[in-house]
Amino acid sequence: xxxxTTVAGSQVSGEVVTPPPAEAPEETRAEPxxxxxxxxWLVLPVVVSVAFTAVIPLMTVVNYSVQDVFSPTxxxxxxxxxxxxxxxxxxVRSALLRTLLFSAQVLLLEIPLGVLLAVSMPRRGLWxxxxxxxxxxxxxxxxxxxxxxxxxxxxxxxxxxxxxxNNVLGVNFxxxxxxxxxxxTVLAMDxxxxxxxxxxxxxxxxxxxxxxxxxxxxxxxxxGWATFRHIQLPRLxxxxxxxxxxxxxxxxxxxxxxxVVTGGGPGNATSFLSILLSKIAVGQFDLGPAGAFSLxxxxxxxxxxxxxxxxxxxxxx
Length: 317
Description:
Blueprint: E1 10-12, E2 15-17, H1 40-65, E3 67-71, E4 74-77, H2 81-88, H3 90-120, H4 127-136, H5 143-153, H6 160-168, H7 179-207, H8 211-219, H9 224-235, H10 237-252, H11 256-261, H12 273-283, H13 287-315
Antiparallel strand pairs: 1-2, 3-4
């Protein structure tokens, strides 16, 4: 007698017959996604604006950097001659060292001061809004106005800061004649102007830390320094990376404030790369060397920012 049992459908004469798979309802069938090419029209304004504000001017600078321009219709192709002359120019090298030193001092001063200011700001209550407004005030002042303010403020005869240093502290301070005084004036001006940016970024990072972290630290009896070191500082790594990159780029490309205050002097004491580039491009109207200088300047900023970003991100892992 043939053994017949039902297993997962039917079994006839010992052979298993698998039922066909059930078809999915038409409503649940996945339809292939259709590409919406009209979305490119939404990106087109951005592409056009970037082309006119970045790509086309950059290509124009590249064109000037390989030519010796005598007039709008008279120019000679010189290849990499301007790049070689710029890299061998001792004045450019000195300006590069001054700019690097200034950026390093800015970071060493503004990052700790900004974090300290953010930690000391209130976390709740009416004084939060008041402190945020007061801290953000220097950021609202235009760069040329900041330069004018400090140009008058640091004057030894009519400026409150310069008069106080000369008459109260008894120090002979004159930023128009002494290179050290000019350097300290530009550095103090930048610290006053941009430390609030670091403070606001750090304060936003501190406010994002959940309150139970501080409650647990208080229960464990952790001191203020231990709370900052083990809770607040690790949580600030991301915003501090952004702050360091922003402040490095801004300080490395600083132009308006020192130009208004000192004009790059006395001598070349505060002549940074940006001021020297402006002197070559606008003062001497040497478009070829200025184009090569601009490209090298741009390349240095990109390389240093990449190094900063790589080091900071890898150290946080």
